[in-house]
């Protein structure tokens, strides 16, 4: 707790630096470091969540007040929103939940103009009246700029999230089912890589498959893992000949059993 307080005081002293215009080279790295540190703190130390959220809120206020707020925060918005939702869902009636919602509204509603492009790339939020305004704002931005978002970019953004929610996976499934041509291009690229010099493990499609398999293995037979399986079925058979997806007996057994469970259900 003491170290968090010291960190917060240090961030308060950086307010003037973040808002100044003369020197910008270091600011993106500073903002990224603070965002990832505080988001990881939210996930790792439940006892410090409220204090961390208060510190995070003060820092975000400093950043959005600067003229280059869009440049500094847009690429991290997906990660921030996912992290806030993760702690918000633990206890919707708690002060932590209310503070998380306040920060979500601060970024998505109060500063929708500054982060319009990044908001349009967010996945849909849970179907709960608490998120009605937020879902509407995200949907509006998707309608405005959805045609500019490439499937490769959407998939890459998902892979970087600290925790794939059911809503993230449902959004991914929409991408995979509605953009089959783009998905086929990614598969063709992967086939060409494998045929020429062997897969190097850097393909976004390989990373996506690996991430989905990890979701299935870590949380089998709930709606989250079932949605991950549906995403895998949309991708279809591809060459997984890479060290990244090295054969794993436990993984294979889990996937086979889960697919049987999915096949026996009536949910499409």
What descriptive keywords fit this protein?
mainly alpha; 0% strand; 15 helices; 69% helix
Task: Report the end-to-end length measured between terminal Cα atoms.
Answer: 47 Å
Q: Strand portion, in percent?
A: under 5%
Largest sheet data: none
Structural class: mainly alpha
Layout of SSEs?
Blueprint lengths: L1 H12 L1 H5 L7 H18 L4 H16 L4 H5 L3 H12 L6 H16 L5 H5 L11 H14 L5 H9 L6 H13 L1 H17 L7 H15 L4 H13 L13 H16 L4
Helix pairs in contact: 1-4, 3-4, 3-6, 4-7, 6-7, 7-9, 10-11, 10-13, 11-14, 13-14, 13-15, 14-15
In short:
By secondary structure, the chain is mainly alpha-helical. It contains 15 helices and no strands. It is 69% helix and 0% strand.
Description:
The longest helix has 18 residues, at about 25-45. By secondary structure, this protein is mainly α. It starts with a helix and ends with a helix. It is globular. It is about 70% helix and about 0% strand.
């Amino acid at each position: 707790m003491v170290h968090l307080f010291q960190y917060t005081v240090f961030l308060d002293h950086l307010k003037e630096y973040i808002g100044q215009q003369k020197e910008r080279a270091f600011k993106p790295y500073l903002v990224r470091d603070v965002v990832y540190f505080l988001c990881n703190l939210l996930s790792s130390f439940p006892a410090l969540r409220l204090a961390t959220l208060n510190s995070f809120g003060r820092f975000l206020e400093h950043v959005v007040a600067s003229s280059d707020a869009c440049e500094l925060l847009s690429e991290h918005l997906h990660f921030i929103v996912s992290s806030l939702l993760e702690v918000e869902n633990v206890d919707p009636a708690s002060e932590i939940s209310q503070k998380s919602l306040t920060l979500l509204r601060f970024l998505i509603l109060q500063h929708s103009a500054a982060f319009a492009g990044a908001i349009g790339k967010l996945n849909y939020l849970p179907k709960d009246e608490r998120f009605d305004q937020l879902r509407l704002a995200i949907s509006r931005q998707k309608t405005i700029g959805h045609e500019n978002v490439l499937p490769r970019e959407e998939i890459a953004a998902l892979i970087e999230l600290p925790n794939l929610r059911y809503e993230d996976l449902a959004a991914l499934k929409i991408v995979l089912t509605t953009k089959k041509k783009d998905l086929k291009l990614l598969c063709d690229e992967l086939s060409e890589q494998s045929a020429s010099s062997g897969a190097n493990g850097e393909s976004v499609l390989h990373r996506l498959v690996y991430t989905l398999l990890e979701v299935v293995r870590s949380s089998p037979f709930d709606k989250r893992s079932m949605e991950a399986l549906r995403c895998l079925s949309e991708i279809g058979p591809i060459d997984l000949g890479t060290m990244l997806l090295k054969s794993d007996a436990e993984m294979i057994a889990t996937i086979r059993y889960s697919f049987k469970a999915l096949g026996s259900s009536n949910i499409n």
